[in-house]
Every structure is written in C-alpha cells, then in structure tokens.
Amino acid sequence: MNRINGIFLLIAAAGIVLQIISGVPGYPYVPPGPIILAVAGILMLTLADRIKWIVAVGIVAPAFILVGGLVEGSIWGRLGNVADFGPFLGTALQMGGVIVALVCGIIAATKSKRPLRT
C-alpha cells in the first residue's frame, strides 16, 4: 500500500503541474501543492517501509490538498468543462490521485497497527 500511495501522490503532483502548464489561473509563482505531494510521494516510496510514522505523511498530505481544493472550489468548474482538456485532465489527475492516495494511506496505517499473526 505504501508504494501505491507514493505513486498516486506523484500522479496528483503531476496533475497540478499539468494545470499550471495549461494555463489555469490563480496558482502562485511557487505553488506549494505539487511540492507537498511530490515530497510526500518520495517519502512514501523510499522510507515508509522502514520508518513507521512516515505513513502519516501519506494521509496528511493528500487530505490537506483535497480539503484545500474542495474549499477553494474551482475544481468543479474545471471538471465540468471537458472541452478545456488540459485543465480538465490536470484536475482529474490531481483529485483522483489525492483520493486514491488518501484511501491507500488510511489502509496502510491500519495495517501497520495490526499485530502480526504467526
């Protein structure tokens, strides 16, 4: 689950980058979203199997981006306009990535709390 979580965090980061490249207005000069997601994805891919608390990063990062995107609200307009393909695809990748990463992070965290049975 940690690897799947990390991969989908990177997919979500790529979705934000695609939105920026395709000209979605409102992103700051250095947007924090792709940085947060990429760092979290790299941590999940490299350290989550060795350092147990890193699994929390795989939950907090996508939850933060998901809540931020929902509160900001412009994702609905981009997802509703399929004709504007770049912003639509970028938003779909971002939202799909953070949702799958969040679910995988929760599953990974609950599995790490269970005792091993022999």
Structure summary:
Keywords: Membrane, Transmembrane, Transmembrane helix. The chain is mostly helical and 118 residues long.
- What percent strand? under 5%
C-alpha-based Rg, rounded: 15 Å
Determine the number of helices (DSSP H or I, runs of at least 4 residues).
5
Q: Span from first to last CA?
A: 21 Å
Q: Describe the main β-sheet briefly.
A: none
Mean pLDDT rating: 92
The ordered H/E elements are: HHHHH
Q: Which spans of ≥5 residues are poorly predicted at pLDDT below 50?
A: none
- Binned, the helix content reads over 70%
Q: Give the tally of β-strands.
A: 0
Query: Would you tell me the structural class of the helices and strands?
Result: mainly alpha
Describe this protein's structure.
Keywords: Membrane, Transmembrane, Transmembrane helix. It comes from Kibdelosporangium philippinense. The chain crosses the membrane at residues 29-47, 54-76, 88-109. With 118 residues, the protein is mainly alpha-helical. The chain has one domain (2-113). It is built from five helices and no strands. The longest helix is centred in the last third of the chain and has 29 residues, at 85-113. The radius of gyration is 15 Å and the shape is elongated. The model has no long low-confidence stretch (mean pLDDT 92).
Offer a few descriptive terms.
118 residues; mainly alpha; 5 helices; 75% helix; 0% strand; SPW repeat-containing protein; transmembrane helix
